[in-house]
Write a structure and sequence with these properties.
Layout: E1 2-7, H1 11-22, E2 26-32, H2 36-46, H3 54-59, E3 63-66, H4 73-81, E4 86-90, H5 97-109, E5 114-117, H6 124-129, E6 138-144, H7 156-171, E7 176-184, E8 193-200, E9 205-211, E10 218-225, E11 228-233, E12 238-246, E13 256-259, E14 265-271, H8 280-294, H9 302-317
Parallel strand pairs: 1-2, 1-3, 3-4, 4-5, 6-9
Antiparallel strand pairs: 6-10, 7-8, 8-9, 10-11, 11-12, 12-14, 13-14
Helix pairs in contact: 4-5, 5-9, 7-9
Length: 319
Amino acid sequence: MLKVGVLGAGHLGKIHLKLLQQSSKYQLVGFYDPSEENAKKVSKEFGYTSYNSIDELIDAVDVVDIVTPTLSHFECAKNAIVKGRHIFIEKPIAKTILEAEAIKTLASQYHVKGQVGHVERFNPAFTAVKDMIDNPMFIETHRLAEFNPRGTDVPVVLDLMIHDIDIILSVVKSKVKNIHASGISVISETPDIANARIEFENGCVANLTSSRISMKNMRKTRFFQKDAYISVDLLEKKAEVVKMKDAPENPGDFDMILQNDEGVKKQIYFDNPQITNNNAILDELETFADAINNDTTPIVTLNNGAEALRIAQWVIDSF
């Protein structure tokens, strides 16, 4: 079992601590939190071992799970990597592109593995259909959340939209050509609502909308490709696939047939992929353990995290 320690015991850090303690692939050594009051509270309530410093915790583990505010990601990652520790780092990978690139360089130099916490890649609704997504040419995403003061230290693009940016980059095999975006600050000092149109060199267009001041929560993504439409509800864990194929010569009474101006007939049929419920955070942590133990490439690499940050920053710069 890999010895693991968690940096940061806030809302998400406590979730990571709980799951790592349950995991059969890790031995949870303990955690470090800069707030002495919070560290004592978490240690007393859950029984986790609290360390007095980041270095003390890093020295005791094989893997460092970084669940601190984004501003401190780089320093935490650097401290772990130079001591030869593998790192799992929550999204966004870092505050700036330069920091993200430095983390990549250090990980390569010290021969350690890293994974970024883009948890939607492990959402069962997405994993159920990702192999059906083939050269999509139009993608639409809506990620709406009710207001929560946690996370408002960064623009909504880095807080919410970056999840969808990462998913889109994982399925569109082309470089980004252009971005048009707008963002509005309503409650926070940084934009709370944002819309971005991302154009790829292969002609694909993605339209993304994110808001953290909505009346209801929504996390939906739609992929349009030749002869198929794929809808993924990441919040409700549902997926629907609508496909078209050449119509049979003698269609049945209940077959749905469309005919265009050229007389070409297509049959429409529906598929509701089976969704296997999972804990996406536990899955991302355990697949990272597998990548370390088997010396394979993590599912969400440091390079993936850096590229998602680069595009997110491009969106912000387009406001």
